[in-house]
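Title: [Solved] GIY-YIG nuclease family protein 3D structure

Original question kept below for reference.
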Amino acid sequence: MNEIKKIDSELSDVLAGLDKTFETLDFELIGDLRNEELIKNHQYSGIYLIEIECANSDMPFLTWFEEFKTKWDKEAYKKRWTPSIKKKRVKAHNELKRWMPIYIGKSRDISGRLLGHLNLRLDQPTTGLKLNARTNMDTENFRFSTIKVEVDNYDIILPIVERILRDKINPLVGRQ
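Solution (posted by the thread starter after getting help):
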């Protein structure tokens, strides 16, 4: 038992350092999420951010958000393995920007995961944004950014990175 406590103590020190390191990470803007050829060039492990363009960024945030929420929460898309709006994260925003963060995720294969967010059908039991199945989002523009994180200890490090960035950026939808 003492050995476990020692490992726990050492791990706590390492994790505290990770928090500080990861707070300084920045996403690299890649481009249009609907460009499948562009997505296919990003077959690596890491964190990704999906944003939606707000064409009328002069609009008050809450006005824009209510319109977005109406589209996102349409009955046809509920209980279809899609992430929901997170009220706690919405409250962190008070200004509408040209690009608003809607989702942060991690994957061992960012390319494959992004293609899933784009192309999964509503009846498929894999969780995803399923953007092409959301016909009421056809006219919306989405972009993606990534942080390449290729590490041996993916299962330990990536959830921490994802949590820190999620708490910093507050994407509007998600599972957490």
